[in-house]
Each structure stands twice: as structure tokens, then as C-alpha cells.
Amino acid sequence: MARKVGVIGMGNVGSTVAHYIVAMGFADDLVLIDKNEAKVKADALDFEDAMANLPFHTNITVNDYGALKDADVIVSALGNIKLQDNPNADRFAELPFTRQAVKEVAQKIKDSGFSGKIVAITNPVDVITSLYQKITGLPKNHVLGTGTLLDSARMKRAVADRLHLDPRSVDGYNLGEHGNSQFTAWSTVRVLGKPLTEIADKRGLDLDQLDKEARMGGWTVFQGKKYTNYGVATAAVKLVNAILSNSLSELPVSNYREEYGVYLSYPAVVGRDGVVEQAQLDLTDEELQKLQTSADFIKEKYQESLEAKD
Averaged over 118-137, what is the pLDDT? Predict the structure, then answer.
């Protein structure tokens, strides 16, 4: 079975996603779509120029929504990153632009007859994932967002840095909105075979500081180069591969949680059928409160997007 992936939006993030897929041979067929015809054609040619020196071959199609009909996964990476250059580090600054673009794109995806899975990176990701699901009419478990998969990685990097470990040796989650209301659920974080809360005192770890570092990681990168791409593209491709390979990986991704009535990040088992199982964490009362705050915020912004006349 040929693996077919679509990437919509070939900006800094979309082109990094596509390059990672081509360089690692993760797909047999890749459909690249962008309103900037010259840019997407240039990227496609650039990838083809790379293939003589790669161990894999990828067939590339450009700007053809019809080619998405039999795709396994579509990655939504469209956006307008310049709008995020604001003093509040607010991902919602992109919403008036992205909700309009996504309404258009989601309709074209639906019209193509696509029946695969959607992985949204487009910010604000939880609201955008909800819009994709509503407009395409795909099952809720087939539409996911990268969510706090990236924020959790940033938290692991911060903790691992302090403890002189590989970040893959840190387990645990950041939850809620991929944005300012997300938080590290310290009750879920384990390291060296113990809950981190147990060794934080002994090792002199300031958990509030680490939580802030995880939250501000993206902003620090953004300040340096005016966009972020490697961290989030890697998170997206990990999610794409979990679907393509039916790996049944437990990942903190944006998925629809019935009890909150909204898409937010919470660990879910991901495989070929999208979200195949949802975890149930034993969170502290304080963490549950933070999660509810996140859920309420996402819901409010989603309602605004539905009512917007753009």
C-alpha cells in the first residue's frame, strides 16, 4: 500500500514537514499545496533535485486538491506567521486570518472526496482543528492537532537539561490549549523511575520556572528568527507516522474530549484509525482547574470563529 500524504501551506513549517518526509522516505506520494504557485513549484523542484542523493524516492504532485482524494493524511500548515509578531506572544493573533483560510481549504478537502486523517498545525491549533472537523464532517477521532506534543517536548528539554539527561528519558505531559493557557501537569512527569515532584526538592528544581521555560520556549525561538519550524514540524511528522504505521503511540495531541465538549490536548493513543483510545489521567484538583480554564477559553474562541462573518 502506497503511503500518501498532503501538506497544505508551504511556509516555514510546511516546507520543513515536507523536507523531513522526503529526506526520511516517510511517504511514497506527497501532495504539496500553496496559494503561492511559484514557491510551491520551487520547493517541489528543490526536493526532486535532492532525490538523486537520497536513499528514497517520493512522487510529488503540486497544487492539485483532487490528488488528496486517496491521501492517508493531510497536514494543515497554512498560516500567516507575521501576525504572531506581537508583544503578547499570542497565537490567537493569527485567528482572523487562519479561520478564513481554513474555511476555504476545509471545503476544498471535503469536495475532493478525502476520507483520511487530518493533522492540524495551523494556529490557534485547537480552534482550527475544531473548524476542520466541523467543515469536513470527518469523524472527530480522524481530525487531530499537534497540540501540546510540542509543548511537552519543550518541557522534557527543560527538565532534561537540569538533570543532565536525554529528553526522551523524561515522561509526562503539558495539557490544555497549545497557547498561553497550557500548563505542565507535574503529577504526570516521571524521571529516573520516580515522579519528578519527589526528586524536585532534592535536586533543587523550581517547577514554576521549568513550566515557564516550556511555555516560553517557542517565544524565545520566535524572537531569534521570527518563526519556529523544526520543533513543530518534527511533532507533526511524528503524529503522521503514528497514523501511517498504526504505531498506537500515546501522545498529548489536540483531540476531542467529550467531557469538555471541545478539542484540547490530552494524551490519546494514535494509530491508523486516528485516535483509537483516550487516556484518563489522575490529575490534581489544581491541574483539573487549569484544564477547565483552557477548555473554556478554546470553546469561547471557537464560537467566535463560527459566528465570524469573514
Answer: 97
Q: How far apart are CA 309 and CA 300, in angstroms?
A: 16
What's the pLDDT tens digit per position in 168-186?
A: 999 999 999 998 889 999 9
E-assigned strand segments in the chain: 4-8, 29-33, 59-62, 73-76, 117-120, 143-145, 170-175, 183-191, 194-195, 249-257, 262-271, 274-278
The residues assigned a catalytic role are: 178
pLDDT digits (tens, 9 = 90+) for 16-33: 999 999 999 999 999 999
Cα–Cα distance, 32 to 45 (Å, whole number) = 11
Whole-structure pTM value:
0.96
Mean pLDDT of 81-100: 78
In angstroms, the Cα distances linking 155 to 175, 199, 214 are 11, 16, 5
User: At CA 62, angle to CA 46 and CA 128, rounded to 5?
Assistant: 105
CB atoms within 10 A of CB 25: 13
b (16+ CB within 10 A) / e for 241-276: bbbbeeeebebbbbbbbeebebbbbbbbbbbeebbe
